Amino acid sequence: xxxxxxxxxxxxxxxxxxxxxxxxxxxxxxxxxxxxxxxxxxxxxxxxxxxxxxxxxxxxxxxxxxxxxxxxxxxxxxxxxxxxxxxxxxxxxxxxxxxxxxxxxxxxxxxxxxxxxxxxxxxxxxxxxxxxxxxxxxxxxxxxxxxxxxxxxxxxxxxxxxxxxxxxxxxxxxxxxxxxxxxxxxxxxxxxxxxxxxxxxxxxxxxxxxxxxxxxxxxxxxxxxxxxxxxxxxxxxxxxxxxxxxxxxxxxxxxxxxxxxxxxxxxxxxxxxxxxxxxxxxxxxxxxxxxxxxxxxxxxxxxxxxxxxxxxxxxxxxxxxxxxxxxxxxxxxxxxxxxxxxxxxxxxxxx
Amino acid sequence: xxxxxxxxxxxxxxxxxxxxxxxxxxxxxxxxxxxxxxxxxxxxxxxxxxxxxxxxxxxxxxxxxxxxxxxxxxxxxxxxxxxxxxxxxxxxxxxxxxxxxxxxxxxxxxxxxxxxxxxxxxxxxxxxxxxxxxxxxxxxxxxxxxxxxxxxxxxxxxxxxxxxxxxxxxxxxxxxxxxxxxxxxxxxxxxxxxxxxxxxxxxxxxxxxxxxxxxxxxxxxxxxxxxxxxxxxxxxxxxxxxxxxxxxxxxxxxxxxxxxxxxxxxxxxxxxxxxxxxxxxxxxxxxxxxxxxxxxxxxxxxxxxxxxxxxxxxxxxxxxxxxxxxxxxxxxxxxxxxxxxxxxxxxxxxx
DNA sequence: CTGAAAGCGCTTACAG
DNA sequence: CTGAAAGCGCTTACAG
Lengths: 351, 351
Prior knowledge:
The structure is a homodimer. By secondary structure, chain A is α/β, with parallel strands linked by helices.
């Protein structure tokens, strides 16, 4: 297999120069006669030289500093608890390589806090950034700043077009809506109606909820068996009182509802509601393996959860940044992770 | 974060000896006065010393040799094509670390070939082995030999109890049967019957088909809604003629069949049969993302496929062996990978 | 039983 | 513009 790797020493011998000169050419540090440089470049190419990373790292002690800017996980949104775990795992695995991670978090409810924290990140002078671009306009401004400073950044959870990101790792949001559509179509009586519930203060701004709903509905436009009505509501306040009022109303007005699609991660709120009013015949599908969502999945009130591998998102984010920084490896720009279909019988494997 | 790592040099200074002596203690190479040794061990402990792997590898050039013994992938069983990919990826990722892999394959249909190949593996004097223990008694003999030679081995795809394996990475076979049961229960009319099809020359010997079927049936014993009959047949020969004869018979005798569970990876054979006789109302579920299985999934003839992440199995196998060999890290003995539920809408993410 | 030295492949000053 | 030397942290002979 390995025909013994070419070393700088070998290149130097072949070119009739010292290793210092070879090193200067390799790293383009100048101070080399044009003629010598050409010759060395030629040999480098012929021998297909690549440096011994071990020796490089051992010598240089240069540590890359990666900063993450992700939402602060809360009781109600334990989804974001998974991301730090993935990042730590990546760093563990990269172990002997010098990599420092600073985690900055922001309040998922506050554009202002997000904006302040982007300034914090900039001040840390990172070599690379991992970012969940929750707030669009603020994110765009931040990305511009990073580009200007030549700091590479990776999106997870969602991405913004026309920015200069190094990579995106996460869900294909539209398609995950279609998967949910297909599953509900399978378990819903052909003539029953289907309710789409978005829970969000301002649905306009929540890009991925919109996109999922679009994907979900698209499945019924061209592929599904179900012929029932599709009802679409937005609940602007996740308090149990508002949920009850809004849900009571829609269910009374639409007695034919057979299934409910919740476009975000708060399906447990609807499951709780259905449990309270004792309506067990309705099929529920939602997103993300929050503890409360899993509880209702295991209770049989929620039929399916769709998982989007939060831990793998951030794990791969770190890995790709590191490979780019240390080996100059350009990753695939968009990596869609599988849309996981989770039921009470396979959920334990995902926890 | 890092308070600068303790080096051998530091230990030596603290103990008032030279670095050579410290090294002798660390590697237990003897030739050290008991008193000195004690002192150094004490300091090692206090400082929580761990070596710089970079420097270690750079110096030693010791390359670990891993040998895999897996079935030869064939047209009909492209499942085993995925494993080499996973292993190559692991080696790529481990890059600067010296790791050689030799892949030995055997004929999935031949106990004799398997046995011959175990001898081949032994002759290669590997530092570690990755093994799919397809044939039980032959595998046990092989494992005994490996244990005697103190060669660590990792199982994938299945494992044999009471052997001295380092780790197993793969499916929870029984549980994956339950998942299939749950899915079919969801899409099958309560009163319809369910057919279980095993395709195998000798069903006795095919442990995992049995186990899956047991898991599948267990779901209907204690959890399912479906009240129909459960019919269980074994087709001993995968030729299309035998399939047709056997299937014609069972369908004629059981007109109430609403769904079919295929315990192995050859669901495409049954899908092809259903396509030919034009029976489209039956729900089909099977295993593994073979090209042909995926074809019938996309055509809508197969409802669900269950995936078991073949690539990840072997990827993790290599990683765990390497970590054990180089860092002496003992892995979790059994790691069940998630049971993936795959439909026509999410299958592309898994390919 | 112990220490001093050489060397793994690379990078970084420094001398000329 | 170029070369020789020191050193990253470890391991491996070798001398005593």
